[in-house]
Every structure is written in structure tokens, then in C-alpha cells.
Design goal:
Layout: E1 5-7, E2 34-37, H1 48-53, E3 57-59, H2 61-64, E4 69-71, E5 89-92, H3 100-108, E6 112-115, E7 120-121, E8 124-125, H4 128-146, E9 154-158, H5 162-173, E10 177-181, H6 186-192, E11 198-201, E12 227-230, E13 251-254, E14 257-260, H7 270-281, H8 285-290, H9 295-299, E15 301-304, E16 307-308, H10 311-317
Helix pairs in contact: 4-5
């Protein structure tokens, strides 16, 4: 029996990304099983009729949440997560490995959970473009909030993945002096830490690690009025003093060092991000509806009806 998919509008403040845009519905075989909340595409310039014309359905928030599968980019941060019913499936970014509260909700409701953060095709993250936008947007927004331009700044980037490449593109275009450190260069980076005006963390943190790359005591070694941009946004992860912030209040000070730790920077450029997400989401919707999932989805199944599949969740909770 084919399943239905509900796509609600995000309730997370300043989160405007959407999982599917009308143009991509033509490539979904079971488009009649899709139910979008009223006004779903309004932020992107699309009307409800645009979705209806492609064969999809429009419904209220409550009607959408009754569907078998709930698809939402930042579903792990949604207040309605606690309102879902046993047996439903969720499909989006969860970050349950790093967040015990989210993991507990998913387990309590005995949901089936496919995590976008764990979806890979041929070794590349499915949502790589969104990750690049995260790096681009974080740099642009952080420098603006901090009140400076990148030129005449010495910047260190930790990491060489998609987030780092996005940050590097913007910094290079705007004249920053950039040095990149990979995972094997942590010791060198710590030695050279005092050289930089700006530190950018783009490392996906290993939750089994109990140490940090930058400790609170290291802030005293940094340049006066330096800036840390923690795009990875892991609370007390690579950077001990990192605490996730919001777009409304993005920067805080610790020992005179500014920290920018906004946890969903791609939403700053939500139109670019939404079109990129839709390009990928459309490939997997029919699989979920028909129950014939690919290896990519199987590998992204982290919780199955109350049973933990991803053992990293247990490891993090037992730290």
C-alpha cells in the first residue's frame, strides 16, 4: 500500500527553506500522494494553485501532519515533532546523534527516521550544495554582523568539505588572506592560532571525541577582537565555547572573542537553498511512498519504530 507524504511549513523562526518546489513535481510518479500545507510555497513566490496544477494536494497544518511520512528540512527543531503519532516516518535534518532531546522524542513516539545528514551517493553528501550555501551564507552574514569586510583579514578555515569550500569561495572573492587546515593539521593550527583575525570551523565533529580543538583557555591566545564563525555549530564540540545562536541574536562574547554560531545559515538564502534541496528530495519521494528504498535511504535510517539503528546515538548519550 502506498504511503502519503505531508509537507508542512517550518515553525522554526527564520526558517524559510522548503523541501519541494512545483517544477520538480513533474518528476515524481506518485505526486497525488503529496500534501502541502496551505501557503507552502508563498515565501518562494509560488501559490497553492502552482502545486495543485502539478497534481499535488493542499491541506491545513493538522491535515498535513496526519500523513504517513512527514518531510521538513529542519524537522529535528520543529515543535510539532512531539505531536506526531506512533508509526509515522520523518524525513529531514534531525541531528539526533548530537541532541539527546531530539533522539528521546523520536524514540518515545516510535517513529521511523531517515536523516538527511546521513544521506550519501557515491561518497558525496546528497545535500552538498546546501552545505556549500551554509559556508557562503555564514561568512557573508557573520562579517556583516561583525561590521567588517573580509579584505585585510587573516582567516583560518578548519576543514576541507563542502561547507569549507563555500566559505573559501566568498572569502577569496572578497580579498581575505585564507589558510586552510584539514583534520590532520590540528596541532599546527593550535600553534598558529594567534595569527588570525577570524577562525572558521567547518569540521563535522566526531561525537565520540571528548576533547576540543579550541578550548576556552585558548581564547586568551587569540588576537584582540577576533571572531570565531562556527558553521558546524556543535555545542561545545570543536570549539569548547560554542553555543548555537539565532539570526535575531547571532553573536556573543567570551573573554573578548566574538562567536557567531547560527545553526541554519542556508535559510538566509532560502530560495537558492530550497531549489537545491528540491533537486535532491524529488529523487527519493517515490521510494518512500512505495516502500522500495535505495541503499542511500537504508543507510540514513537512524531509528526504526523505537529501535536505535545508528549506534552513535547511544555512544553520544553515554558520554
Amino acid at each position: 500500500m502506498k504511503k502519503t507524504v505531508g509537507l508542512p511549513k517550518s515553525r522554526k523562526k527564520n526558517e524559510k527553506r522548503r523541501a519541494l518546489v512545483p517544477r520538480d513535481l513533474k518528476e515524481i510518479k506518485n505526486v497525488d500522494k503529496l500534501y502541502f500545507e496551505t501557503g507552502y510555497g508563498q515565501e518562494l513566490g509560488f501559490s497553492d494553485q502552482d502545486y495543485i496544477n502539478m497534481g499535488a494536494n493542499i491541506g491545513s497544518f493538522d491535515q498535513v501532519l496526519e500523513k504517513d511520512i512527514i518531510c521538513d528540512p529542519k524537522i529535528g527543531d520543529e515543535s510539532f515533532l512531539s505531536d506526531l503519532k506512533e508509526g509515522q516516518t520523518v524525513f529531514g535534518w534531525l541531528h539526533a546523534v548530537q541532541n539527546k532531546d531530539i533522539a528521546d522524542k523520536l524514540l518515545e513516539k516510535k517513529l521511523k527516521v531517515y536523516a538527511w545528514e546521513d544521506m550519501y551517493e557515491d561518497g558525496r553528501h546528497v545535500f552538498w550544495r546546501n552545505n556549500q550555501i551554509a559556508g557562503e551564507a555564514a561568512v557573508m552574514n557573520a562579517f556583516e554582523c561583525f561590521g567588517i569586510m573580509p579584505y585585510n583579514t587573516k582567516v583560518a578555515i578548519l576543514g576541507r568539505g563542502n561547507v569549507a569550500s563555500g566559505a573559501l569561495k566568498i572569502l577569496t572573492c572578497l580579498g581575505a588572506d585564507v589558510t586552510i587546515y584539514n583534520r590532520h593539521m590540528e596541532k599546527l593550527f593550535k600553534k598558529e592560532l594567534p595569527n588570525y583575525d577570524v577562525i572558521i570551523n567547518a569540521i563535522l565533529w566526531d561525537v565520540s571525541r571528548k576533547d576540543h580543538i579550541i578550548y576556552k583557555e585558548d581564547l586568551k591566545r587569540m588576537k584582540k577582537n577576533a571572531l570565531i564563525i562556527d558553521i558546524s555549530c556543535d555545542r561545545a564540540g570543536a570549539i569548547e565555547t560554542s553555543v548555537p545562536t539565532t539570526m535575531d541574536d547571532p553573536i556573543y562574547l567570551v573573554d573578548g572573542i566574538s562567536h557567531y554560531v547560527v545553526d541554519h545559515t542556508p535559510s538566509i538564502f532560502f530560495k537558492n537553498a530550497s531549489f537545491g534541496l528540491s533537486e535532491e528530495v524529488k529523487k527519493y519521494i517515490d521510494q518512500l511512498i512505495e516502500g522500495n528504498v535505495s541503499k542511500t535511504l537504508k543507510d540514513a535510517l537512524i531509528i526504526d519504530e523505537g529501535k536505535i539503528i545508528d549506534q552513535r546515538i547511544i555512544a553520544f548519550q553515554n558520554r
